[in-house]
């Protein structure tokens, strides 16, 4: 079982160099942030990062063989914000799985830029990213999924979605008697992986989101 670290509210710059083989971090950010993770040989790190109307930079260095990162970033956006993530595979047989999910509340810009680098010689690396931004109104969203790969013996792919919640899902749920606010709540709970937070913490952290 992964060890869950003490939850941290992250603003400013934070660097983590875990010593344990398996570590789970839970981060909360409601102001601009910079996070750097350095992961060594045989280490497995999973991050659940919750943002509220903030910009930030995330840098992950996979520095030892069989180093692994799973990073879940979930954010609710009201203003103009830009989140940049950069993962560097600096050893053989490393693994990165990135899941960036955003809900764009207002008519503003939310941008995800996800850069993954696998240099020549870093064989058997696996890199996967899955990015989604849902626009509640006519907000502007951008996803830039960049893969910089200089090695053939790797597996690397990505998938992205920008747009509203699918009409077929909304229609189905409305046909079952659910109101639009309730539907939105349920879809957001499905979009955001809420591991590491209690119900009270979820409400407290995301209470700034406008309703209706």
Kindly describe this structure.
It is a single chain. By secondary structure, this protein is mostly beta strands. It has one domain (3-206). It contains 3 helices and 14 strands. Strands 1, 2, 4, 6, 8, 10, 12 and 14 form an 8-stranded parallel beta sheet that branches. Strands 3-5-7-9-11-13 form a 6-stranded parallel beta sheet, with no helix packed on it.
What is the overall shape? globular
Number of helices: 3
The averaged pLDDT comes out at 88
Oligomer designation: single chain
Percent in strands: over 45%
Q: What's the N-to-C terminus distance?
A: 40 Å
What is the helix content? 10-25%
CA radius of gyration is: 18 Å
The total count of strands amounts to: 14
Largest sheet: 8 strands, parallel
| Total number of distinct structural domains | 1
| Uncertain residue segments | none
Helix vs. strand class:
mainly beta
The helix-strand sequence is EEEEEEEEEEEEEEHHH
């Amino acid at each position: 079982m992964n060890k869950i670290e003490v939850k941290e509210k992250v603003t400013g710059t934070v660097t983590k160099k875990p010593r344990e083989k398996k570590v789970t971090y839970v981060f909360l950010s409601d102001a601009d942030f910079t996070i750097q993770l350095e992961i060594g040989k045989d280490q497995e790190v999973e991050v659940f990062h919750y943002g509220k109307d903030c910009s930030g930079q995330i840098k992950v260095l996979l520095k030892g063989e069989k180093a692994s990162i799973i990073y879940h970033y979930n954010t609710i956006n009201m203003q103009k914000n830009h989140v940049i993530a950069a993962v560097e595979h600096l050893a053989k047989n490393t693994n990165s799985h990135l899941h960036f999910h955003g809900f764009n509340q207002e008519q503003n810009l939310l941008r995800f830029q996800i850069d993954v680098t696998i240099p020549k010689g870093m064989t058997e690396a696996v890199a996967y990213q899955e990015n989604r931004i849902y626009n509640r109104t006519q907000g502007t969203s951008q996803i830039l999924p960049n893969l910089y790969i200089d090695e053939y013996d790797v597996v690397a792919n990505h998938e992205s979605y920008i747009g509203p919640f699918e009409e077929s899902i909304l229609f189905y749920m409305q046909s079952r008697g659910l109101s639009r606010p309730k539907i939105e709540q349920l879809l957001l709970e499905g979009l955001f992986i809420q591991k590491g937070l209690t119900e009270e913490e979820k409400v407290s952290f995301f209470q700034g989101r406008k309703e209706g």
